[in-house]
Design brief:
mainly beta; six-stranded antiparallel beta barrel; 206 residues; seven-stranded antiparallel beta sheet
């Protein structure tokens, strides 16, 4: 009994003296330019995410697929609305697509580069699992950044990614996009892969 009590006291002292986890500041960004995409091709339909940049709506090529029209869905803007858009540019190799922006939306600025210190805090904001009311947010860190064999900058993050998150921005604390989600790491617990801002800049400048 005395040993158990002593162990409890030691544990309590250690907990009191432990360094608290680092505080994660709330993300104070205008997320109004992050939209749900509803895509239809023949009898098939699927959804994804996109976000407004100066040139249009940025998303993934695999989200657009072979469709020549995409519906931008705004569940709460200021009431449920939907607008028709069309692809302006597609790079299937980099898995990027740019859609026409039919209305004025808040713009998400791209970070100069995705090469930030490992452990940098990030948030992923999008419409996973066909979320209907408003975008969801997950948070994590940048686990790795590298260029693949085709020169595409890749970003690995432990922020949770689910179907429907394709096209979601990977946001830094200053609200700039370090990249765009395009895949979930198979066999992991929701880890995500993205295309880095370096490649996004190159795509938009063509």
């Amino acid at each position: 009994m005395r040993r158990a009590l002593a162990a409890f006291i030691v544990s309590a002292v250690l907990l009191v003296g432990a360094t608290p986890p680092p505080r994660v500041e709330p993300l104070e960004c205008n997320l109004g330019g992050i939209v749900q995409l509803s895509v239809h091709s023949g009898d098939a339909s699927w959804s994804g995410t996109g976000f407004a940049v100066a040139q249009g709506i940025l998303t993934n090529a695999h989200v657009v697929g072979d469709s020549d029209a995409v519906i931008l869905v705004f569940p709460t803007w200021p009431v449920a609305r939907a607008f028709l858009s069309r692809p302006l540019a597609i790079d299937a190799a980099a898995d990027l697509a740019l859609l026409e922006l039919p209305i004025d939306l808040p713009i998400t600025a791209l970070a100069p580069t995705a090469y930030v210190p490992l452990g940098t805090n990030v948030r992923i904001v999008g419409f996973p699992m066909d979320v209907k009311d408003s975008p969801s947010m997950t948070r994590g860190i940048v686990s790795k950044t590298w260029d693949n064999d085709t020169g595409v900058t890749r970003v690995l993050t432990d922020a949770a990614v689910n179907p429907g998150n394709s096209g979601s921005p990977i946001l830094a604390n200053d609200c700039t996009a370090l990249g765009i989600v395009n895949a979930r790491v198979l066999g992991s617990y929701g880890m995500g892969l993205g295309i880095g801002a370096d490649t996004l800049h190159a795509f938009l400048e063509r």
